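Structure first, sequence second, as always.
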């Protein structure tokens, strides 16, 4: 007598009965791994924002040094610092006035720029400022300064 071949359905039952899910991850293991990843990401975020803020600060300081140099050229041409306002004892101007009169091209992406002149004797003193709202930061440079001052 010949042996009958086992039915393919019996093999299927065998595979169904084996415990395949024993090698899968549990929900608790997945949540713990996710928690570890979240903690690592939250610890690394300040390391990425500090260099960005340092680059923004450097940009503002460079712009103030450019304003300082442009003011000195303006003084050589005109005999007084920009802005010259005969009505007010001090005058404050915005970025568009700075760009057009000092013939520079600053952008106001992250900073607000301004120049104030003081009438000590024929507008011979100025202060250029760069301020930022969030986070609150401000730099300034005067006629005598070589580098901007601030935080």
């Amino acid at each position: 007598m010949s042996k009958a071949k086992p039915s393919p359905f019996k093999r299927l039952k065998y595979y169904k009965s084996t415990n395949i899910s024993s090698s899968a991850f549990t929900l608790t293991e997945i949540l713990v791994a996710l928690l570890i990843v979240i903690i690592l990401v939250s610890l690394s975020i300040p390391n990425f924002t500090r260099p960005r803020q340092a680059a923004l600060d450097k940009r503002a300081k460079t712009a103030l040094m450019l304003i300082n140099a442009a003011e000195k050229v303006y003084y050589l041409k005109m005999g007084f610092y920009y802005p010259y306002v005969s009505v007010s004892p001090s005058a404050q101007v915005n970025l568009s006035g700075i760009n057009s009169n000092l013939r520079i091209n600053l952008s106001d992406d992250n900073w607000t720029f301004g120049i104030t002149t003081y009438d000590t004797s024929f507008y011979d003193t100025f202060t250029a400022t760069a301020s930022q709202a969030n986070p609150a930061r401000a730099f300034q440079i005067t006629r005598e300064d070589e580098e901007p001052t601030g935080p």
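Margin note: The beta strands are 90-93, 112-118, 125-132, 137-142.
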